[in-house]
Design goal:
By secondary structure, the chain is of the alpha/beta class. It has nine helices and twelve strands. The N and C termini lie far apart (35 Å).
């Protein structure tokens, strides 16, 4: 079985030539020896016209290994609460294989993550990241995990399971946490709220991020994937986080009365 694109020609160009041209424009060319190692990145997942520059600048800065674990929020409510996809992905730039060794380790060590393709069929939050990863890493393999709203202690338990599986896997893994920030707030209000969330990520404070987003009703759709990614990175030894870029949809649309915020961060 192969997963087919759900949002090609809507969120990003479905034509391979047009998509390659977009990638060349959005992802800066950086020599491999100038890229920094990273345990995780936080990247937005809107249409490329809005968030592509932020995503491209972020992934262009880091050394991406062959295996990438992508965590994204469930926008549709289909499938399990923590749904791991095991079908290869047919994408405009070529088919991307699942890293079945890491996927099997995760399923073996986790009592909470289940194999489930239903959550992945319509979900865009992971899909839009894949062309960026293909652009910087030939021979890319992914492990896609769609995440629903779960309590913080659940995030902690899942993160420990993922860290155990990654350690057992024994090869480099980059975690991509896919999230947009505030949705449909004024630019000033979005910047204020998003600044609070970004501050907690920069402080490597997953519990603070979770509490800040829920307590202040910040409509950051991928707060759970980001919380889990932070927890895994800390378990694996992360010591710092860096903001690459923050912007909002008004930069492209000109409408600053109701924007969606986008942030790119590197955790290392």
């Amino acid at each position: 079985m192969t997963r087919v694109p759900a949002v090609a020609d809507r969120f990003y160009p479905g034509d391979p030539e047009h998509l390659r041209a977009a990638m060349k424009m959005l992802v800066p060319t950086v020599a491999e020896d100038e890229k920094q190692p990273a345990m995780a990145v936080v990247m937005p997942h809107a249409g490329y016209i809005y968030s592509g520059a932020t995503a491209g600048m972020t992934i262009g800065r880091v050394r991406v290994p062959e295996t990438v674990l992508i965590l994204g929020p469930n926008h549709h409510g289909r499938g399990a609460a923590l749904a791991l996809g095991t079908d290869d992905w047919r994408m405009p730039l070529g088919t991307v294989a699942i890293d079945r060794e890491l996927a099997a380790a995760i399923l073996r060590h986790s009592a909470r993550i289940v194999e489930d393709s239903a959550a992945h069929v319509p979900e865009h939050s992971l899909e839009v990241q894949v062309p960026f990863l293909q652009q910087v890493r030939p021979g890319l393999r992914i492990v896609p995990l769609v995440v629903s709203q779960v309590p913080y202690d659940f995030c902690q338990a899942v993160a420990l399971e993922l860290a155990t599986a990654i350690r057992e896997f024994g090869r480099p893994v980059l975690i991509v946490a896919s999230t947009d920030m505030s949705h449909y707030e004024s630019r000033s209000q979005a910047a204020k709220k998003d600044g609070m969330a970004i501050e907690r990520i920069l402080a490597l404070d997953p519990q603070g991020l979770y509490a800040t987003v829920l307590g202040n009703r910040i409509s950051m759709c991928g707060v759970i994937p980001t919380t889990i990614a932070l927890l895994v990175a800390l378990e694996l030894g992360a010591t710092q986080a860096e903001l690459v870029r923050y912007t909002d949809s008004g930069e492209a649309s000109g409408d600053v009365s109701q924007v969606v915020g986008y942030a790119g961060l590197i955790i290392s």
